[in-house]
């Protein structure tokens, strides 16, 4: 089976996950993407994947025109990020017998009546039936709602959990520091936890600052939590190789996901109408995580998490996990759940690829 994966935005981690899933169900993926995503991919050198990378400066419409013979030969085509540059291709979907799937990351934004929002044109095409709506987590599905009837899991296991023997504990908070993550709550929790820690804790804020305010807040907290806690942050975008290397050496994750996210006046609810990419990192590396209580997860991986509701309860969890090695116990217990979750992912993918 031949599967085309189309990504002209910057969701390189989603592209990578789908490449691995399509390979693991025995399909042959062909990737149509930009130089950014190609450069971030571990699969870029794989002989099992065919790559078509748009040259810098070439309009995507012209690039896709050159790729038409290849696109027309696919059995399935997945639009990973719906961007309006793909409208011409999707309008000409009748030129191929492939089944089209469009991954919708933010359901309320995608279905909004605001014709001026980003990607409004391609959303209209998809909602009019040019492609199937495909949600990025099975937990977003709802019986009886046509827009919520199809989904795959973006998060996909890749690396087995790894335990480390060292004096310090390493915690990572992946992703850009912006309003979609409650970093202020984390900093408050760390200040409460710091005097009670019996081991040194290193915390990596693994993403660039969206504002000067977050940068200043981390700097102020750095002094307040020293010497028992070391805070590390990054001034610029963190390349995928460094991102992955840091995750691979981490003991546990802290995922301060904000429950609601508002863009252009449209409210999305995490775990209900959209998902956080942080779960991809958690599952991909088999990393235990501290996560807000509201966020729904598959039963197969929920045991990797401990849940908190406010900064005092988060502080208590940080102290317990650091002082008792609770994260390593969770790693040891995670293997069977990750195997079951992987099977769930592949079953969902096969269901989408099955003949109608």
What is the compact description of this entry?
With 356 residues, the protein is an alpha/beta fold.
Uncertain stretches of 5 or more adjacent residues: none
Total E-strand runs: 14
Indicate the radius of gyration in whole angstroms: 21 Å
Helix content class: 25-40%
* Major sheet strand order: 3-2-1-4-5-6
Mean pLDDT level: 94
Question: N-to-C terminal Cα separation, in Å?
Answer: 15 Å
Could you say which structural class the secondary elements and strand pairing correspond to? alpha/beta
Q: What report would you give on this structure?
A:
With 356 residues, the protein is of the alpha/beta class. Helices cover 39% and strands 19% of the residues. It contains 15 helices and 14 strands. It has helices spanning 12-24, 35-40, 60-66, 68-72, 87-91, 107-110, 120-130, 183-193, 212-225, 240-248, 278-285, 299-302, 311-324, 326-333, 335-353, and strands spanning 2-7, 28-33, 50-53, 76-79, 99-103, 132-134, 169-174, 201-208, 229-234, 252-254, 260-263, 266-269, 289-292, 305-308. It has a six-stranded parallel sheet, with helices on both faces. Strands 9-8-7-10-13-14 form a six-stranded parallel sheet, with helices on both faces. A hairpin with a 2-residue loop joins β11 and β12 (266-269). α8 (183-193) packs parallel to α9 and α8 (183-193) packs across α13. The mean pLDDT is 94.
What order do the helices and strands come in, and which of them pair?
Blueprint: E1 2-7, H1 12-24, E2 28-33, H2 35-40, E3 50-53, H3 60-66, H4 68-72, E4 76-79, H5 87-91, E5 99-103, H6 107-110, H7 120-130, E6 132-134, E7 169-174, H8 183-193, E8 201-208, H9 212-225, E9 229-234, H10 240-248, E10 252-254, E11 260-263, E12 266-269, H11 278-285, E13 289-292, H12 299-302, E14 305-308, H13 311-324, H14 326-333, H15 335-353
Parallel strand pairs: 1-2, 1-4, 2-3, 4-5, 5-6, 7-8, 7-10, 8-9, 10-13, 13-14
Antiparallel strand pairs: 11-12
Helix pairs in contact: 8-9, 8-13
């Amino acid at each position: 089976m031949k599967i085309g994966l189309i990504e002209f935005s910057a969701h390189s981690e989603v592209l990578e996950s789908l490449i691995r899933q399509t390979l693991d169900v025995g399909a042959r993926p062909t990737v149509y993407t930009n130089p950014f995503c190609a450069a971030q991919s571990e699969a870029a050198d794989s002989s099992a994947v065919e790559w078509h990378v748009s040259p810098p400066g070439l309009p995507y419409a012209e690039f896709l025109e050159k790729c038409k013979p290849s696109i027309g030969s696919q059995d399935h085509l997945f639009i990973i990020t719906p961007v309006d540059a793909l409208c011409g291709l999707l309008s000409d979907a009748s030129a191929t017998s492939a089944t089209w799937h469009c991954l919708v990351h933010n359901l309320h934004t995608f279905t909004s009546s605001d014709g001026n929002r980003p990607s409004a044109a391609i959303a209209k095409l998809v909602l009019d039936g040019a492609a199937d709506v495909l949600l990025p987590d099975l937990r977003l599905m709802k019986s009886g709602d046509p827009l919520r009837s199809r989904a795959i899991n973006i998060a996909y296991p890749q690396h087995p959990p790894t335990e480390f023997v060292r004096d310090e504990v390493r915690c990572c908070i992946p992703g850009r520091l912006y309003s979609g993550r409650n970093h202020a709550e984390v900093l408050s929790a760390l200040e409460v936890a710091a005097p009670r820690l019996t081991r040194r804790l290193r915390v990596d804020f693994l993403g660039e600052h969206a504002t000067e305010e977050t940068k200043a807040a981390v700097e102020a907290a750095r002094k307040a939590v020293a010497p028992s806690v070391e805070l590390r942050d990054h001034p610029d975008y963190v390349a995928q190789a460094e991102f992955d290397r840091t995750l691979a050496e981490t003991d546990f994750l802290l995922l301060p996901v904000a429950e609601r996210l508002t863009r252009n006046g449209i409210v999305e609810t995490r775990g209900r109408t959209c998902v956080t990419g942080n779960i991809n990192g958690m599952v991909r590396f088999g990393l235990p995580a501290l996560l807000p209580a509201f966020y729904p997860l598959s039963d197969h991986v929920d045991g990797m998490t401990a849940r908190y509701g406010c900064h005092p309860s988060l502080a208590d969890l940080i102290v317990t996990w650091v002082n008792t090695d609770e994260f390593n116990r969770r790693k040891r217990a995670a293997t069977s759940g990750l195997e079951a979750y992987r099977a769930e992912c592949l079953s969902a993918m096969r269901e989408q690829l099955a003949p109608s």
